[in-house]
Amino acid sequence: MRKIYGMILLALCMWCLGSCGKAEEEGENVFHVYYISNSETKVEARHHNMQTQTAEDQLDELLACLSAVPEKLEYKAPLNYGFQVLSKELKDGRLSLDMSADYKKMNAIQEVLVRAAIVRTLTQVKDINYVSITVEGEQLYDSVGELVGVMSANQFIDNDGSEINTYELTRVLLYFANGDGDKLIGAYREKYYSTNTPLERFVVEELIAGPSGQVPGLYPTVNPETKVINVMTRDGTCYVNLDASFLSVVNNVSTELAIYSITNSLVELNNINKVQILVGGEVPSSFSASTFERNLDYVTTFEK
Predict the structure, then answer these.
(1) How far apart are CA 208 and CA 128, in angstroms?
(2) Strand partners, 89
(3) CB hemisphere CA count around 33 (13 angstroms)
(4) Fewest CB atoms within 10 A around its CB: which of 4, 105, 186, 261?
(5) Alpha carbon 281 to chain centroid distance?
(6) Per-residue model confidence (pLDDT) at position 143
(7) Which residues pair with residue 47 across a beta bridge?
(8) CA separation (Å) from 62 to 17, 117, 235?
(9) Considering the entire predicted model, what is its pTM?
(10) Residue 3 banded pLDDT, cuts 50, 70, 90
């Protein structure tokens, strides 16, 4: 059965390569298919003219679109990350998808983006309200060990990029190092930022940029050579993917303190409870934990 399903899906993929993303007019039969940006920072919607009528047929059609790699490679297909859809079952408004073991080979950010694209695309079918994912029949757990469970579209809301070149004044609390490099001191920063940039990425980039100099006694916690690969937030957890420069300490500030500089700054945002920091898409074995929460034991104030 798996081979037969795979052959059907392959045939639909070949058709979808020529049809997904071409429809530009909104209408009753126009669906949005969500793909992953090449930067792997967000999901992007493409219009698709639905050709079928029944829920089962529409499901197969959308799965084919999610598998189809665009000829110009302007985005990534969510179902083209090395794993296979082994089976599907639609019952009482809930779609259950079983994936092959290779699904677990994706890093944390890729996996969340793939889930977001799948759920937001497939829940447009009238008879599908929720989606659940298993791997070889086993329940799916996220990168912090929590059960993913049943998902709905409203769990995955992104900035769709419609507010291009819009800037807002924001006030964020950033934690930098003290003079000895063993404690954190919070300082507010007001600055205009592009609403096309997630606020959590803005926070990380400002920490890398270091103290502004307007408040004396603050020192950088993160190596200024650090590059942000991507930052995204899902279900209260912010995933921060940095390059290897992050592991090179500055000003005698330990990696642990740098981690809590980022964590304590990010959890000041209303939508973030936990932070996972990755280096090149992986959690370094030297880290004391896979995710971090607010830790005020490292925070101090200026001496009077």
Answers:
(1) 43
(2) 96
(3) 34
(4) 4
(5) 12
(6) 73
(7) 32
(8) 12, 11, 25
(9) 0.60
(10) very low
Q: What is the pLDDT of residues 39-97, one digit of tens each?
A: 887 888 899 999 999 999 999 999 999 999 887 788 999 999 999 999 999 999 999 99
Query: How far is Cα 193 from Cα 166, in angstroms, rounded to an integer?
Result: 8
| pLDDT at residue 163 in the model | 41
Half-sphere exposure of 61 (CA within 13 A, CB side): 21
Please state the rounded mean pLDDT for residues 217-238. Answer: 93
State how far the Cα of 269 lies from the Cα of 198, in Å rounded to an integer.
11
What pLDDT does 9 receive?
47
The CA R_g of the chain, rounded to the nearest whole Å, is 22
Classify residue 180 by burial, with Cβ atoms within 10 Å: 0-12, 13-18, 19+.
exposed
Q: How far is CA 94 from CA 59, 136, 143, 279, in A?
A: 12, 18, 24, 36
Cα separation, 209 vs 23, whole angstroms:
42
Query: What local confidence, expressed as pLDDT, does residue 157 receive?
Result: 53
Exposure string over 87-102, b if 16+ CB within 10 A, otherwise e: ebebeeeebebbbeee
Amino acid identity for residue 269 in this structure: L
